[in-house]
Specification:
about 450 residues; alpha+beta; Helix Hairpins; Glucose Permease (Domain IIA); 8-stranded antiparallel β-sheet; 9 helices; about 15% strand
Length: about 450
């Protein structure tokens, strides 16, 4: 009996597993269809399948959250390694700077000492020349002492005393001259020894500089690899975050009915002040995917709506200044951000703008027109400096989306499944397939540089 119960239990589990598997296969890739079905009047008639679809979405969200946690751990490790190497690089650079300063001081000391030695050498040579000349003049013959001859030539006692005092003065001068010569020679020799020591210290310091610089080059190379890895992990995290399904019903309730909005006759500016490109679309200069363009500008610079539309997602809560590897933001690492659906020249576009200043992103449901302020430039999330990250996804022609009852924007929002990438994949190996230059149908990604120019 027990075995029969166990068997029935196992069979039941297998049936449930197979049902869930069937539904997972059926729902996978058909989310847009079931989003429309379960958000329409037909949902009541399809209550069972819509309930299963909600379970499928919940499981999908759970799976994505697990993957995000794994990437976050990798990101934290890469960030710690990056910080450790940056500290070591800063230490080596400080030592190199100190050695350069020491080399400058030693070089100055050597120059001054060399000049002093040259001066003293000339003075020693001059004194020696005088002494030698005097010795030659005083001793024309080895048989007589010239001082005795000078004294013996005195005419009287007073002359003898006078001559004696003169000889004493001369001998005192000669003694002082010899003493000065001796001191100068000693100082000259001492200076020469110090000069040799300073030159050796200079050579040693230069060798240390070379060794430190080689070490610094190696560590910077490793650091650059870590930064590339960090950006890759960050992009993976953002890619997975982009697939997280937002609370679409809550978003729709916040937005309400937008109605017909006039299409903008061309694109407006994103930045309301001076700006410059810091990174281009598709790839960073150092490697790693980059699905938008970065506009460098000072913190607090106005960010403007580039066209007429509505805010469909907004996130606020990250510090204005983040750091490389910071995962703050709805799209992990993008910091404070907004997403808009806009209309330009009869076409719909999804716009993502990130790294905003804290407390400046405009709220969900706000209708905006070209040139209106929607936030301010910051450096929130994974960022190394103030800038606005901008992505543009082409969503199709308004004529495709609109009908007699609803505007194109309203119909798009009704069908939107809440994916933060607007349906244009961010995954490695797929993201370029969604570039408009490689894909002729919506949704596809545009290079913002081609729109906003230089």
């Amino acid at each position: 009996m027990k075995n029969i119960v166990k068997l029935l239990f196992i069979i039941g589990c297998l049936i449930l597993f197979n049902i869930n598997t069937i539904y997972a296969v059926e729902f996978e890739g058909n989310e847009a269809h079931y989003n429309n079905l379960c958000a329409s009047l037909e949902a009541e008639a399809n209550k069972a399948i819509c309930s299963d679809y909600m379970n499928y979405l919940q499981q999908k969200r759970s799976n994505f959250n697990q993957r995000i946690e794994e990437v976050k751990k990798q990101l934290a490790q890469a960030e710690n390694n990056s910080k450790t190497f940056q500290i070591e690089i800063n230490r080596l650079q400080a030592e190199i700077d100190a050695l350069n300063e020491r080399i400058n001081i030693l070089t100055k000391n050597i120059d001054e000492l060399t000049a002093e030695i040259d001066k003293n050498q000339k003075e020693v040579d001059a004194i020696r020349s005088k002494v030698l000349k005097r010795m030659v003049n005083m001793q024309p013959s080895m048989r007589f002492n010239p001082y005795i001859d000078f004294l013996m030539g005195a005419k009287n006692f007073n002359d003898l005393i006078s001559r004696s005092n003169g000889i004493k003065a001369i001998m005192s001068h000669d003694y002082n001259t010899n003493q000065k010569l001796d001191e100068l020679v000693k100082k000259l020799n001492s200076d020469k020894l110090k000069l040799e020591k300073d030159k050796k210290d200079l050579d040693d310091s230069k060798l240390q500089i070379i060794n430190h610089q080689e070490d610094l080059i190696i560590k910077k190379a490793v650091f650059d690899e870590l930064v590339i890895e960090l950006k890759k992990n960050q992009e993976d995290l953002m890619s997975q975050g982009a697939q997280l399904i937002a609370d679409i019903n809550s978003i729709r309730n916040s937005i309400g009915k937008v109605g017909k909005m006039p299409t903008a006759a061309g694109w407006g500016s994103v930045i309301g002040g001076n700006w410059y490109y810091t990174s281009g679309t598709w790839y960073y200069d150092t490697g790693g995917r980059h699905l938008g363009v970065d506009f460098g500008a000072s913190v607090g610079t106005d960010i403007l709506a580039p066209a007429n539309g509505v805010v469909v997602q907004s996130y606020n809560g990250c510090d204005t200044y983040g750091w490389l590897g910071n995962s703050c933001g709805m799209l992990q690492g993008l910091g404070n951000q907004v997403r808009l659906v806009v209309t330009v020249n009869g076409s719909l576009y999804g716009i993502t703008i990130g790294h905003m200043k804290l407390d400046t992103p405009i709220s969900v449901g706000t209708q905006v027109y070209t040139g209106e302020k929607i936030g301010e430039v910051g450096s929130s999330g994974s960022s190394t400096g103030p800038h606005a990250h901008v992505e543009i996804v082409y969503l199709g022609e308004e004529s495709y989306w609109q009908d007699d009852e609803n505007s194109a924007i309203d119909n798009y929002i009704s069908s939107w499944d809440g994916h933060l990438s607007f349906g244009a994949a961010r995954y490695s190996g797929e993201f370029l397939d969604f570039a408009c230059e490689n894909k002729s149908t919506a949704p596809c990604r545009l290079r913002p540089e081609t729109i906003f120019g230089s």
